[in-house]
Write a structure and sequence with these properties.
165 residues; mainly alpha; 3 domains; Arc Repressor Mutant, subunit A; 9 helices
């Protein structure tokens, strides 16, 4: 584990300069996609004035260089491919400040979550279905930690498994 790089301090005259804020935002967006709230927070952490940051982010949203719906769809697709479930993905998106409507749309437009739970289970534990109750419990805990609902876990472990017992 490394140490965080010290950040360069921003010159006082650049803190309120819209061009400097926009350049910093473009630099961040060149590396990866951000949610608008997340980008606002990053720019504020760097020391830019909040009013200028809000204006710059609003311009980027108007130009569609920054799109929360696109971010939510991309984030959902990427993390679903990594074996995470809809509950965990939705919680991560809420932490990034996305509105509930966008989160529900991204999760709903996602793939078959039961099939994803089966794939995550078989990748981790092999193709054979668990035979004993302790093994079923262990696999259910794994899928629950990954963010799958009880319905998805039941589908992944077989019809005779009941989490409510």
């Amino acid at each position: 584990m490394g140490f965080p790089r010290p950040r360069k301090s921003i010159e006082p005259d650049k803190k309120r300069d819209p061009a400097a804020v926009r350049a910093a935002a473009a630099g961040l967006l060149a590396r990866r996609d951000f949610a608008s709230g997340e980008l606002r927070d990053r720019l504020a952490e760097r020391g830019f004035d909040s009013d200028v940051v809000h204006e710059a982010v609003a311009e980027l949203v108007a130009e569609r260089a920054l799109d929360d719906a696109r971010f939510a769809d991309n984030y959902t697709g990427y993390h679903a491919e990594r074996g995470q479930g809809p509950i965990r993905i939705a919680a991560d998106l809420r932490l990034r400040g996305l509105p509930p409507g966008l989160i529900e749309a991204a999760i709903g437009a996602g793939s078959d979550w039961s099939a994803r739970a089966r794939a995550a289970r078989s990748r981790r534990f092999g193709p054979e279905a668990p035979a004993s109750w302790p093994e079923k419990s262990r696999q259910a805990r794994f899928l629950q930690y990954r963010g799958f609902s009880s319905d998805h876990i039941r589908a992944a472990l077989g019809t005779d498994f009941n989490l409510d017992d």
